[in-house]
Design a protein that fits this description.
The complex is a heterodimer.
Chain A lengths: L1 H15 L8 H14 L3 E8 L5 E7 L12 E6 L6 H18 L3 H9 L1 E5 L4 H9 L36 E5 L5 E3 L7 E3 L10 E5 L43 H11 L4 E7 L28 H15 L13 H7 L5 E4 L22 H12 L3 E9 L3 E8 L1 H5 L6 H17 L4 E12 L2 E10 L8 H6 L5 E5 L6 E3 L3 E4 L7 E9 L5 E7 L6 E6 L1
Parallel strand pairs in A: 3-4, 3-9, 9-10
Antiparallel strand pairs in A: 1-2, 2-4, 5-8, 5-12, 6-7, 11-12, 13-14, 14-18, 15-17, 15-19, 16-18, 19-20
Chain B lengths: L1 H15 L27 H14 L4 E8 L5 E7 L12 E6 L7 H16 L4 H9 L1 E5 L4 H9 L38 E5 L6 E4 L2 E7 L8 E6 L45 H12 L3 E7 L5 E4 L11 H17 L4 E4 H5 L6 H9 L2 E6 L3 H5 L11 H20 L4 E9 L3 E8 L12 H17 L4 E3 L3 E6 L2 E10 L8 H5 L6 E8 L1 E10 L6 E4 L6 E4 L8 E10 L5 E9 L3 E9 L1
Parallel strand pairs in B: 3-4, 3-9, 9-12, 10-11
Antiparallel strand pairs in B: 1-2, 2-4, 5-8, 5-14, 6-7, 10-12, 13-14, 15-17, 16-17, 17-22, 18-21, 18-23, 19-20, 19-22, 23-24
Helix pairs in contact in B: 2-3, 3-12, 7-12
Classes of the chains: A alpha+beta, B alpha+beta.
Chain lengths: 540, 593
């Protein structure tokens, strides 16, 4: 317990460094070093270097247990693929410390952390975050690989520009019937789609803040970078996009992640913090014909998926909102190709409880934009009031609208409550990991020194030992059941059984006829890096 | 008379600057500068040595560059062939040619060696070769799978193995990789077949025409033999034989685009370009947008194959199909016995293949030649219309070939069936055909195979885009304004941007530029439609640099006009530049009064 206390003190000190805001690359690095130095249960590893040579690091935490931490079934948490998803980085960075300090008072969590390992990669795209922080506050999902988005022979030559110098890349609106937006009836500061057929004509043409830096007539069409790492994986990869990479994966950062998962057979499940969310909304079952990349999970996988989604909603008080489903994402690859249960969450939803909204007149806003505006008004930031600006090529425009990062990331005071929610969810997830157990159903002599041996393999967890998707892709290793006897002593049955299916709460029985002596001890071993290995000694 | 006088003068520059060709007094077949034998196959070390020899004999012409290391650490050689006195290869249209991505499909490497040798030997002798080398460059990857190649040569192997690269893979998912492959049980250096004579349950019997061969029994017939597959034992004690051999994947299913995971496409690997060999050649292709044609040599069957690899992708632009068809038909003419085919429709579906990647992702017109066809060897052409098909016909043909091979190659490929005591199968026999018996030509036919396939590939190279800008038409509009009309034409079959290249935005568009000295360009437009009454497609911004998204089509042209405002009353110097990644950059100057 003493190490927890020391540890908590150090973390509190280091987290204070960036006070009420989100961490930058240096602060993430400093915190990780402090975490690893302050506590024995945390091990810091460098997985790879980013394109610009910045280390991509993970922390691995585990409480003392019977199996060494590196050999235990592992939960991998990944954040920071998209630089603008700063809440993910902040939560992932604090999650390890929060798990350990919660475990100090929660024996159930402590025993889970003694049985499993949690590995956290809090910042998978450090270069992207540096690039984001070097410019105005804006949406940014890419790394620094030069990409010639407009195919004019130059890369990154027409980025957005902070014309009004407020540090935010917001919107420009130009008054023209040729636009596509009009003022919202909910609040005239908000823009909604025009509906000319219903007599609601367009008033504004809307662009992001910037000028035509390269004089080709387009504005902001070729910003800095890059490849969107969360579109750079091979399930559903879309090669026609300029930000999806030339191959999948093609980037040092995405190659590092894919290599780490494929090279770590202990990884049992993943949790990805980013723009995608498959817990607040469970995907529909697959509609593709056989032998075509699936559009959704096989129906057999929806049972456990829904159980986890419910646990997530319970832990996070999330009322549920459709998450983004991007093509070629890391979490989709991890499930649809690596065959592992891989969950994703954007961590913060405008419709969630805990962030109540109220308009000045006492009414509740009805749209996400309305709720966000109400929050901005209350926080006194997050929305730039529309103001006139003389644009060099567009003439008179107005600059204003939401701070793009405010839309993605909650006010920093909500980081701590979200971390607590994630601690709860991680506990729920670990509780439900596959947990194989061996038991003897029969070890009886049938005469002449022959024994019948029946062993039951039971999955005492909720998640399957192999997902239905994993059984299709054959990527996850099967469980290996071995009878520790010379083959000539096995009269019937296989010395080695490969178990490809063992769903949560189910049992499979195996039977052998062997030669033996009374009171002899026969050893049965179940090997699985992903689910944990078990040994059973059977006395004949 | 006048023409006769001119002729020697025209020829003079062609030969005057040439160094003397080494002559041995034989005007029909002069001694080559470099002697390379094409009646033998080259292992990896011999291949490298041959290229180094060529390189030393033709200083500056060959650039050898290692693109990385194979799984087992062999260099992946790229050889660029280009005229050292002309522009660098990156500024010329280039043809990419590789071979041997499947380790056992070896003879493409010899075709590449032959092509390098032939181009260099004849670069001064033959005007067509000289003209070609003035204009284009070549990128050769003589073997994409050097590990597989050397394993085929130097390890016990079959005609069909190793097709894979040699990164260990746990094929049987038992936690160990490559632990139960074939074994050369009789120690003869080859993996041949195992058969066992059985009292009951036999599936084969001896061929009455040739007892060295086994033929399957018909229902109701009694079989005397079981065919037990390639030589091997149960190395890992799991009750199965040869179920986890070396490697276990297909690099020609590992390319991004229509890649599918291995449960859908066998051999695909865990993700696209996961092998050093595939990543190296794809990165090379990405980095060289001047590649305008591609060829990837395989064996066997005598085919010139284009994509698509799957019915889903059967939506190639019509303009590109015309180019493929024209080249494919020419290939059938140059390569008697070879057929021009569509991969998925005429063979089998392939996902993540290399030539479909080159075309569907990078917009490069390319083929796979499947080198060597049995009928070229023994002349036995199946008369399918006459009922010569099905199992019986195949059996008759194979039997006849065995006999032919005895007569022509004196039994070189057959290992006599020999008794062997097998730990799992008991008393068996080992024997049958050896590695060089099926997919590679007998060496006495190799040189012809090399030459004809090279000839087809050079024809393909010749049809890479060749662009010219015609004399511009400059009209004085008064008030200091000029109208400049110009046309760039493609003299070749392959467009400067293929239909697919345009569809997938494979590279940059072409740019048609006007630089003006003594004036400014105030308007620019591409011209479309009828020559005398064109439609304008003006470009509002940067009119001096027109984007040409379609490129210059097959034997087609691109027309443009600019409005130029002169500084003074008189005199203007114009420079027209057409920039094309695959057609090169060409310039034409014009000086007006």
């Amino acid at each position: 317990m003493r190490s927890f206390l020391v540890f908590t003190a150090i973390v509190a000190a280091s987290l204070a460094a960036y006070g009420g805001d989100y961490p930058d690359v240096e602060e993430v690095a400093k915190d990780l070093t402090a975490l690893a130095a302050g506590s024995e249960p945390i091990v810091l590893t460098e997985l790879a270097k980013s394109r610009e040579g910045v280390p991509i690091r993970s922390i691995r935490l585990a409480l003392p247990g019977t199996v060494p931490p590196e050999e235990r079934p592992r939960l991998l948490v990944v954040a920071g693929l998209a630089p603008d998803h700063r809440i993910g980085v902040a939560v992932a960075l604090r999650l390890g410390e929060a798990l350990l300090s919660t475990a100090a008072d929660d024996p159930a969590l402590a025993s889970l952390l003694a049985r499993y390992t949690v590995e956290i990669i809090p910042l998978a795209n450090p270069d992207g975050l540096s690039m984001l922080l070097a410019g105005g506050r804006r949406e940014l999902r890419v790394n620094t690989r030069p990409v010639d988005d407009d195919r004019d022979g130059a890369s990154g030559e027409d980025p957005p520009d902070d014309l009004n110098g407020d540090g935010i890349i917001s919107l420009m609106r130009v008054r023209t019937r040729a636009g596509s937006k009009r003022a919202s009836e909910e609040d005239e500061r908000l823009l909604v789609d025009a509906d000319p057929a219903a007599g609601k004509a367009a008033v504004w043409r809307v662009l992001t803040e910037g000028i035509d830096n390269d004089g080709d007539g387009w504005i902001n069409e070729d910003g800095p970078g890059g490849v969107d790492l969360d579109r750079n994986f091979p399930h559903g990869w879309d090669p026609t996009r300029s930000d999806s990479g030339k191959s999948c994966p093609s980037e040092p950062e995405s190659l590092a992640l894919i290599g780490h998962v494929l090279g770590t057979p202990e990884i049992a499940t993943l949790l990805v913090y980013g723009h995608e969310s498959n817990l607040s909304t469970v995907p529909d079952a697959n509609k593709s014909p056989p032998r075509v990349p699936p559009t959704g999970p096989p129906p057999e996988d929806l049972g456990w998926w829904k159980v986890l989604a419910e646990a997530f909603k319970e832990a996070c008080k999330a009322t549920g909102q459709a998450g983004e489903q991007s093509t070629g994402s890391f979490a989709q690859w991890a499930y649809y190709q690596a065959g592992l249960p891989a969950f994703s969450s954007s961590l913060w939803y405008l419709s969630d409880e805990g962030t109540p909204f109220e308009l000045p007149d006492g009414k509740a806003p009805t749209t996400d934009d309305g709720r966000l505006l109400a929050l901005a008004d209350r926080e006194g930031r997050g929305f730039v009031e529309w103001a006139p600006f003389e644009h060099e090529t567009l003439g008179s425009v107005e600059i204003g609208g939401f701070d793009p990062l405010f839309r993605i990331n909650p006010p920093p005071r909500l980081i701590a409550p979200i971390v607590s929610q994630q601690v709860k969810f991680v506990k729920e997830l670990l509780t439900r990991l596959p947990r194989p157990a061996l038991s003897v159903n029969s070890a009886r002599a049938t005469g002449n020194g022959v024994y019948e041996l029946k062993v039951a393999v039971t999955n005492e967890g909720v998640l399957p030992a192999l997902t239905a998707m994993g059984r299709l892709t054959r990527a996850p290793a099967p469980l290996r059941l071995e009878l520790d006897l010379p083959t000539e002593r096995i009269l019937q049955g296989q010395a080695r059984e490969m178990i490809d299916r063992l769903d949560g709460g189910t049992t499979a029985e195996f039977r052998w006829l062997i030669t033996g002596k009374p009171d002899e001890v026969v050893v049965v071993r179940l090997h699985s890096a992903r689910c944990g290995s078990v040994i059973l000694e059977v006395r004949l | 008379m006048k023409r006769l006088l001119l002729l020697p003068v025209m020829l003079l520059p062609l030969f005057a600057s040439s160094p003397a060709i080494s002559e041995d007094g034989n005007p029909v077949t002069p001694a080559p500068r470099v002697s390379l034998a094409f009646d033998r196959f080259y292992d990896y070390a011999e291949m490298v040595e041959a290229i180094e020899k060529l390189s030393a004999a033709h200083p500056g012409w060959l650039e050898m560059k290692s693109l990385g290391k194979s799984v087992q650490g062999r260099d992946l050689w790229l050889v660029a062939l280009n005229d050292p006195d002309g522009p660098p290869h990156t500024e010329k249209p280039a043809m990419y040619i590789d071979a041997n991505i499947h380790g056992n499909e070896i003879q493409g490497t010899e075709v590449i060696l032959y092509t390098m040798w032939y181009l260099l030997e004849n670069r001064e002798r033959l005007p067509l070769i000289r003209g070609l080398l003035d204009r284009v460059a070549f990128y050769f990857i003589p073997t994409v799978n050097p590990d597989g190649r050397d394993a085929w040569f130097h390890e016990p192997s079959t005609p069909h193995s190793p097709r894979t690269g040699l990164r260990p893979v746990d094929d049987d998912r038992d936690g160990q990789a490559d632990e139960d492959g074939p074994d050369d049980l009789d120690g003869d250096g080859s993996i041949t077949d195992m058969r066992k004579k059985v009292a009951t349950g036999g599936t084969h019997r001896l061929d009455p025409d040739d007892p060295r061969r086994l033929i399957p029994v018909r229902p109701g017939e009694k079989g005397e033999y079981l065919l037990l597959g390639p030589e091997g034992i149960d190395n890992d004690g799991d009750g199965r034989i040869n179920e986890d051999g070396p490697g276990g994947y297909d690099m020609n299913r590992n390319f991004p685009g229509d890649w599918r995971p291995s449960w859908i496409q066998w051999g695909a690997g865990p993700y696209p370009l996961c092998y050093p060999e595939t990543r190296a050649i794809a990165d090379f292709a990405f980095a060289h947008p001047n590649i305008a044609a591609g060829q990837s040599y395989h064996n066997t069957g005598g085919m010139i194959i284009r994509g698509p690899g799957h019915a889903d992708e059967d939506n190639y632009p019509r303009s590109d199909l015309a180019v493929f068809d024209r080249l494919g038909r020419d290939g059938e003419r140059i390569l008697p016995g070879y057929d021009y085919k569509v991969l998925y429709a005429d063979l089998y579906p392939v996902r993540g293949g290399f030539v479909t990647f080159l075309y569907e992702r990078l917009g490069i017109i390319c083929f796979t030649n499947e080198l060597f066809r049995w009928t070229q060897y023994d002349g036995i052409v199946p008369d399918e219309a006459g009922g010569d098909h099905g199992e019986d016909a195949r059996r008759r043909r194979r039997g006849a070939r065995m006999k032919f091979s005895d007569d022509v190659e004196f039994g070189r490929h057959f290992r006599k069936w020999t008794p062997y005591h097998h730990p799992q199968y008991g008393d068996i026999e080992i024997g049958g055909l050896t590695r060089a018996s099926r997919r590679v030509p007998p060496v006495f036919m190799l040189e012809e195979l090399c030459h004809r396939n090279m000839a087809f590939t050079l024809l393909h190279a010749r049809e890479m885009p060749e662009l010219v800008i015609d004399e511009p038409e400059v009209t004085d509009l008064g008030e200091g304004l000029l109208r400049v009309r110009a046309e760039v034409r493609n003299l070749r079959l392959i467009p400067s941007i293929t239909g697919m290249g345009k569809r997938v935005k494979a590279g940059l568009p072409d740019f048609f530029e006007l630089e003006v000295e003594g004036g400014v360009t105030c308007g620019g437009s591409l011209l479309e439609g009828a020559r005398l009454t064109p439609r304008l497609r003006p470009q509002e911004h940067r009119p001096g640099r027109l984007r040409v998204e379609d490129g210059v089509g097959s034997h087609g042209s691109v027309r443009a006009e600019w409005i130029v405002s002169r500084d003074g009353r008189q005199g203007v110097a114009l420079k027209l530049v057409y920039r094309s990644q695959k057609g090169g950059t060409i310039t034409r100057k014009y000086t007006g009064e």
